[in-house]
Amino acid sequence: MITTKDLTKVYRSRGRDVLALDSVDLHVQEGEVFGVVGTSGAGKSTLIRCVNLLERPTSGTVTVDGVELTALSGSEQRAGRELREARRRIGMVFQHFNLLSSRTVQQNVELPLEIIGLDRHDRRRKAAELLDLVGLADKAGSYPGQLSGGQKQRVGIARALAGDPKVLLSDEATSALDPETTRSILQLLRDLNQQLGLTVLLITHEMDVIKSVCDSAALMRGGRVVESGRLTDLLADGHSRIARDLFPLGDFGSGQADRTVLEITFQGDAPAQPFVSQLARTYQIDINILGAAVETIAGRLVGRMRVELPGSHTDNVVPIGYLRQQGLQVDVLDLSNGVAA
Ligand SMILES: Nc1ncnc2c1ncn2[C@@H]1O[C@H](COP(=O)(O)OP(=O)(O)OP(=O)(O)O)[C@@H](O)[C@H]1O
Q1: What PROSITE patterns does the database record attribute to this sequence (predicted)?
Q2: Atom number of ligand 1 nearest to Cα 205
Q3: What is the CATH number of the domain that holds 280?
Q4: pTM of the model as a whole
């Protein structure tokens, strides 16, 4: 549904070039919620602004729903007719809501419909439907200043849906909200994704957002996508940095040379059996549990545990094989850099 190829953006700032996007290849499938995560300055905002050509990339292509936007003329306010048409099928939600304070909630939602020339009656009907969809039917006559942050973001979402978009872009939509409101807005995005078949591309600096709402994710660093994929696949990959960040499990053990640290992951229907005590009993070994967490990720129950066994990797080949036989994913950590060996 959204594909970027070799997407590059260079800003010229005070006489020097800033490489904000460096050959970004991204593929967001139709109907999924895709999260881009990364620290400040990684290039997330630039990426999302290039996806709907609010920012014209320096090179590379952006294709949304089969239309190559980068081949259409104009950008920002001077977009040509075809680009404006294509943009109508892409909704955008902003961190600070971007509502007009002098207009009522209803009038804010009607704004994009006014711009496309819909008549008054149809505008009213459509805006009322959208406000109902986001749970704000009773606030139609209120002004943004009379709403909470979460309600303002619901208005922002209703407005973004006015053009019946197939794709919704969310630029840190929950960063200005408290944790409970964040949860309710993420749930709303998830519901809209499922009810309307909406494809959602969101950017965030919070791993919790990825964990609670996304099907897939990409990690950005220094303008590059360093990892991307479906969360279920990433969780099955012992080298995945995203998976590691989804489960911060504490330290890496005693640091002694004759110890083996394992990371054990179980997903979905994998046995929720007491494998640690079974292992200890079967092989008569003392197992040190270093950390454990169970989360619901992409709608599936996923657990991860880090344990330390006495002896080297070679000494533990048989117990590791036993765990794998139980349907568990087992990665042996390389203690020098904390990733799977
Ligand atoms: N208009 C601009 N002019 C010059 N440099 C820019 C401009 N916009 C962004 N940059 C630079 O591009 C890089 C990527 O910025 P961007 O805002 O995309 O990152 P980000 O991951 O969204 O960060 P944040 O989470 O802080 O918004 C940064 O080095 C930033 O300073």
Answers
A1: ABC_TRANSPORTER_1 (PS00211), ABC_TRANSPORTER_2 (PS50893)
A2: 25
A3: 3.30.70.260
A4: 0.86
